[in-house]
Design brief:
By secondary structure, the chain is of the alpha+beta class. 22% of the residues lie in helices and 35% in strands. The protein contains 3 helices and 10 strands; from the N terminus they run βαβααββββββββ. A 7-stranded mixed β-sheet has the order 1-2-10-9-7-4-5. Strands 3-6-8 form a 3-stranded antiparallel β-sheet, covered by helices on one side. β9 and β10 form a beta hairpin. The model has no long low-confidence stretch (mean pLDDT 88).
């Protein structure tokens, strides 16, 4: 099962209990995906703090860009080979976690999925959900 976090206000201090539940949810074998409208409304420094404080990850905001003609799928055979999106990238990730990249050898991604505990943590930076 999967929880999708779309509201950037979920990173606010008022929602620490929710954040803790999301981490536990992922650690116990399920999937948490953060993105969609979240990426449109997040403040870059707050994103870095959220991923570090809540998830223990050193993810930071990368480029905000539209790749044309498309991003290239680099690890999921069941996804479209190319996907066009205007996206907030995240950097300081591991190459094996990147789902789409803008070019071979890219060090940031608009979409990733990382093993987290027994489950997964995902990020989708598509700001327009095209």
């Amino acid at each position: 099962s999967t929880v999708i976090v779309t509201d950037a206000s979920a990173i606010e201090d008022d929602f620490v209990t929710v954040q803790e539940k999301l981490v536990e949810y992922s650690k116990t074998g399920r999937t948490v995906i953060i993105g969609f409208h979240f990426s449109s409304f997040i403040i870059p420094t707050e994103l870095a703090t959220f991923f570090k404080k809540t998830w223990g990850l050193n993810w930071k905001c990368g480029d905000y860009t539209h790749s044309n003609p498309a991003f290239i799928s680099c690890r999921r055979p069941n996804l479209p080979e190319q996907y066009s999106m205007k996206a907030l990238h995240v950097k300081n990730t591991q190459p094996q976690d990147l789902i789409y990249i803008s070019s071979p050898g890219a060090v940031q991604s608009p979409a990733m999925l990382v093993n987290y505990g027994k489950g997964y943590l995902g990020y989708v930076g598509d700001v327009n959900t095209e």
